[in-house]
Amino acid sequence: MKTKKIINENCEVTVNLKIKDTENTYLLRIKNNFIPQNFIPGQFAMVKHNPGSSDPLLARPFSIFRKFNENEFEILYRVCGKGTDLLSNIKKGDYISVTGPLGNGFDTLYDFQGLKNGSGAKIVKNIHILIAGGIGIAPLFSLPDFIKNKGRKGNEPTVDYRVNDSLDSNERSNINTEGNGRTPSNRVLEACNCGDNNKFILYYGSKTEKELYFRYSIHSDYDEVYFATDDGSFGYKGNAVDLLFKNINDYCNQNEKSTERLNVNFYACGPKPMLSYLINKLRAQNKSNMLDSGILNEYAVQVSLEEHFACGIGVCLGCVVKINSENSDNFVFKRVCKDGPVFNAFELQDYC
Amino acid sequence: MEEKNSKDISMSVKLGRLFLKYPVMPASGTFGYGEEFIDITDYSLFGALVTKGISLEPSKGNEMPRICETPCGLINSIGLENVGFEKFKDEKIDFLKKFNIPVIVNFFGKSVEDYAIMAGKLSRIDGISALEANISCPNVKEGGRAFGTDPEIVYEITASIKNCSDLPLIVKLTPLVSDIALIAEVAEKAGADVISLVNTFPAASIDINKRKFKLSRGYGGLSGPAIKPIAVKLVNDVYKAVRIPVIGMGGISSWEDAVEFFMAGATSVAVGTGAFNNPYLIPQITSGIKKFLQENNFSSIYDIIGIVNN
Ligand SMILES: Cc1cc2nc3c(=O)[nH]c(=O)nc-3n(C[C@H](O)[C@H](O)[C@H](O)COP(=O)(O)OP(=O)(O)OC[C@H]3O[C@@H](n4cnc5c(N)ncnc54)[C@H](O)[C@@H]3O)c2cc1C
Ligand SMILES: Cc1cc2nc3c(=O)[nH]c(=O)nc-3n(C[C@H](O)[C@H](O)[C@H](O)COP(=O)(O)O)c2cc1C
Ligand code: FES
Fold it and tell me: For helices B281-295 and B255-264, what crossing angle results, to 10°?
């Protein structure tokens, strides 16, 4: 029987420190020899700071922020209630319960089916646009590195984007996540062999400077970084989505007749109002030009959602979100923890 | 030597005609249709596999928020979301069958007739070892009060299920009644083979800043350690009132908790909320109890069942 391995272990904490120049945000480093090597950005872990104890009762979900080394991974968390407050008191050397990696991470196998009249068009670059709101940087943080490294794994430097259906299913599942709740699509493995053809752009917004984590160091992973704060204390005064739309034509207004194309992908995580705003604006933009030229296909915008979780593994049905459907109610419920937390943005009913 | 002793201890139990190799199982609604936990844990020490409650038609369930945490407890108002009978038959049962572990299908209806129809349909599909009728849900025709609060309706439901199905029948009681022993006796008289309890307790939690209930429906059902002492008492009440075996549950999060239920009279126990934090809880409880029996010179799980009343 084929299963997607998930571990549940009591793991040693090696670091749990407040990040300088932030308000109540901590970096938690955890020893484990499975998760660092096997997670996909966007996946999360259920963490219980008091294993075996009943108050608080439930484990809390946190995105897997980063692999620190082969045997340690990190979580970036903001203290916002009882559970996170108690977690911040955990000391180096203490043991906490960790279950993961859970959920479906970001899909990084780009789909080119959406290219209409794309018979002869050649993709010259993959543009990855990441949009983060505050602590929403956590699931996105490892994405550039993940995409670049998977890219380097391929042995052919050239890029071949033909849809390849001849891959056997094992090969596919090595890279793709199983049990994906998103609409299945033909993903092209060769697209990963394009390490040098990736461009990474980050739009990073928050209320104020102190919630822009790693604002002085994050540039190294990106070709371009744009900051926005509501109070104007750092970067553009306003929100990150408006900032993105100032530049949107650079990414999306491509010449239909050209034989060269950009493949544009969006990945976002942040508060619900930010995600709704982003999705609505992208949808409008898509109608005006991107869809016609086939630049922005329906899988190109992925967002990572949050809900209150009880089980985190898909059995309690406590964390559902409405997904568009053809049925009589026009929606089905899907579980954020198991079918997500990453969803195709245009499928989400309550966000449009 | 010690190893040999531990092997001699008999952990198997009989729930009517239903034989379980181990006396611990998941609680309905906390184990899906068995497809998720298998990625983390293996089922070889599970006494049975128990499904989410199924109804004739699929049900979408309630709007969000559906869950909230309270001290040592969880309130849920999932709204009995389920795939419905047809999809269960076509897509879910085959997976559950693979393990060669008894499959208990939990089900419910909107009316007494629904229960009978469901029982008939379920007994015609292959791979089900027993039925568990959840009678804690609202009786839509009778103003929405839970079926399980009215002894006459409990009799009627139980008898009509037995009429339509030869499978062993577990009747799962709702805990918030004035006389649980009476309800259990009525179910026994109507032909129930096993009683299970407790289901969740009606409960609510309020966000004082928003001045609103935390759950979309206002109230939900409380589970977890907070309800355990009440559940132990109710299990004992039922144990003393009936001859048929009892499955005990409510807040079990350790083998010690489980032993309390056995001593109160349960022949088998189920674990729900506790497994959310510890996916290995079911096998751990089985091995913990085995060790306990061995250290106390018992040779069988039956030696402690109802021991507090002996
Ligand atoms: C898939 C996923 C990944 C996450 N990743 C991270 C991460 O990397 N870093 C991080 O800091 N946080 C993350 N969160 C949010 C984190 O789980 C919550 O902040 C945490 O559960 C709060 O626990 P608490 O006991 O401190 O707060 P509580 O006392 O439970 O609640 C305090 C406040 O936080 C709100 N809240 C609680 N849980 C959530 C939630 N899940 N979503 C939205 N609001 C919530 C409550 O409504 C309340 O206002 C993630 C959540 C999900 C679902
Ligand atoms: C999320 C959730 C869903 C549940 N769904 C069902 C159900 O469909 N049918 C049922 O009979 N009981 C259901 N229950 C009740 C449990 O089976 C069990 O009786 C109760 O939770 C007490 O056990 P616990 O404290 O170990 O969780 C549900 C409980 C929870 C927490
Ligand atoms: S948290 Fe239980 S199904 Fe998602």
Answer: 60
